[in-house]
Amino acid sequence: MDRVQIGIIGFGTVGSGTAEVLLENRDLIRGRSGVDINIKVIADLNLRWDRGLNLEGIRLTEEAMEIVEDPEIQIAVELIGGLTTAKEYVTEAIKRGKHVVTANKALLAHCGEELFSLAQRHNVLIGFEASVGGGIPIITAIQNGLTGNRITKLMAILNGTSNYILTRMRSELLPYQEVVDEAVRLGYAEDPPTLDVDGTDVAHKLVILMALFYGMWFPLEEIYKEGIQEITPQDISFAEELGYRIKLLGMAKSRGKRVEARVHPVMIPKEHMLSGVEGAYNGIYLEGDFVGPTLFYGLGAGRRPTGSAVVSDIVSIAKRLRSQQKSFSSPIWALGPKEEFRLCPMGEVETPYYFRFQAVDKPGVLSKISGILANHQISIASVIQKGRRLEGSVPIVMLTHEAKEKAVREAIEKIDQLDVVTDKTLIIRVEAQDAL
Amino acid sequence: MDRVQIGIIGFGTVGSGTAEVLLENRDLIRGRSGVDINIKVIADLNLRWDRGLNLEGIRLTEEAMEIVEDPEIQIAVELIGGLTTAKEYVTEAIKRGKHVVTANKALLAHCGEELFSLAQRHNVLIGFEASVGGGIPIITAIQNGLTGNRITKLMAILNGTSNYILTRMRSELLPYQEVVDEAVRLGYAEDPPTLDVDGTDVAHKLVILMALFYGMWFPLEEIYKEGIQEITPQDISFAEELGYRIKLLGMAKSRGKRVEARVHPVMIPKEHMLSGVEGAYNGIYLEGDFVGPTLFYGLGAGRRPTGSAVVSDIVSIAKRLRSQQKSFSSPIWALGPKEEFRLCPMGEVETPYYFRFQAVDKPGVLSKISGILANHQISIASVIQKGRRLEGSVPIVMLTHEAKEKAVREAIEKIDQLDVVTDKTLIIRVEAQDAL
User: Fold this and answer.
1) Does A386 qualify as catalytic in the annotation?
2) Global pTM value
3) CB contact under 8 A, A329 and B34
């Protein structure tokens, strides 16, 4: 039986999960792939804590470069994460003709173009299934299963932590900060969970998915990004009442060569499949020109699910090595007549909006607000105004028809300056019913 | 640029969809795969009707063997379906060293073992993404994305026609036959839609998925099978009231080497992701030992979605041809060490049950029924008995705790012989809340 030697760089959560899959299901993988995958070396700066695994026969080292430089190792598995040393190891491994598997979404979102060109020149593969959607095999689904499709729309819950927070806020009607504190205490979220809740992590993953759809790497800093920190349980209740759920989404929509890409909370109809994606789960909703609407659902993080994704890449490369492949099929963006897509500026995006104004409970307030909206060609679809006073002010909630982001920002800036308006207006973009 | 020559056998719905993807997205596919896929010949017995496609440069023939015998054609795409001539063409193509792509679930469910052994001997691939789940890339997801996992549980909506019927019955509270007649009239269902509604089509797909999970082909005739013909709108309403939805599922569960495989209507909790799979959509819910729960959702049939799946196989084989692969990686069941799974007899299956008894509205009826259940160690979880009379009899609905199928059948046989029971008892198996 063919044997493939691998080295794992980074032995934290994902590294241990990867080793666990390979060790526990070694026979299964051997049977399915025809290859015996052998972990030759594992490198980590901290080898002291017990991973609960039988590591007999595996060399442990603090020196990641040992893996990169070992000529026997065919696949280097980078699971350090982040933008510090990971890039060096990946680059050096590629230069030495090694295939690379990585779960590092930040690295790919920042340096994808550079790394994939390098891999192309050295005729090696980069596997990155684990970089998006945890255990969900979304990369292979897009690269292989949907390869004949133009992907025209993506709406995706890509961060389990923020989805868990929103789910708890809804089910328990707890304020944001309280749920975050609890999640940190229980070890479900990092302290502080900034990159998870502010949309950064989602933006990383969005840029990777967009590279698959459009064959080009969009600059991360040009992706519009907004987090969930301003959402209140009150907004979640209003959304319920209006037939919606609030989710933090990564979105990409294309029409011709024009691409809208954004990360922010979205109100989606309760009946949409994405509304059923709760807790720490991820859900990736795609529309292709032939396949139509699809959804992929599963755990977006965690030792075992992410390990499952890393191993799928390792096995896939190992099978290609076994089949004596000479030229390693380029990832889809490295070839071809390049289509030049361009990002639509955020100000030009058109979508329905949810506004929650905080205003004093006096006659004439509604007329002032709606007057400004009308002046900006923003047309109101429905209003909820309730009598209950919150420290002297009341919430007024509006859903609009499609409006232009630029007009909305201008209108809201004026509204927030009204003396009857007591607080900053909260804006949530809405995905309308016909998006089902 | 490399060019791969293909021939399409069968130019009906799926054949036209396949040609449509390849023609309409030819540049896109070329860019993504590095291969130009050329349809050299299309064969069909009826070439007269207009498929709405520009077929310039493609040879049309009534002789499928022309494709099989053409040495230039590298991939034969079998889209005739059924068990008549399809097998001959597939077999002959393989023997001549051609790779095969097929959407033919009946053929694979009946002759999978034989065909894949033959392909193995001739070092060719059989692509069958389109045989299960229409456009959903479920085969590549399992074969590649989840390859490190033991799949321990499958619950899948695999037939769009029956799911459409159940959805309409629920939303409009219409009887089965009325919805079927309407679906046939609108062209959504075949006339009669026997294989779709009686579980046969689902059983075909289940056997294919099980081959992927367990590495062996289970005999189709040993899969327990029950259709949706007996379900009434009344049952659907009772299910709603109890917090469930009724879906026709293909199920496979394994514990160690013991596999439960069955096709029948199931009551699943409303909050389960599968309950949101409505209309003509398919949904495949899987649990793997590492990945945990996952769901794959999309259109289960139709010209364009199924075309998308067929094309994904064609491109995948074309990419391997381009990369100068010598040995074509065997599908996972063709390699050892063979694990010997065995089917659990239906009588030994344990699950909660829904019973709808039809009985005269007299004192003592409930006590007679529950007495027989108790004698068979079947424990009742809840009862709904309502006063409304239906032609002299009333429905009594019960949910049980876990009970053994064998005991249930014996008990129901006795109950159905009671003189107070006016009609055959309807049984629906229940997937309990903890299955979420």
Assistant:
1) no
2) 0.96
3) yes
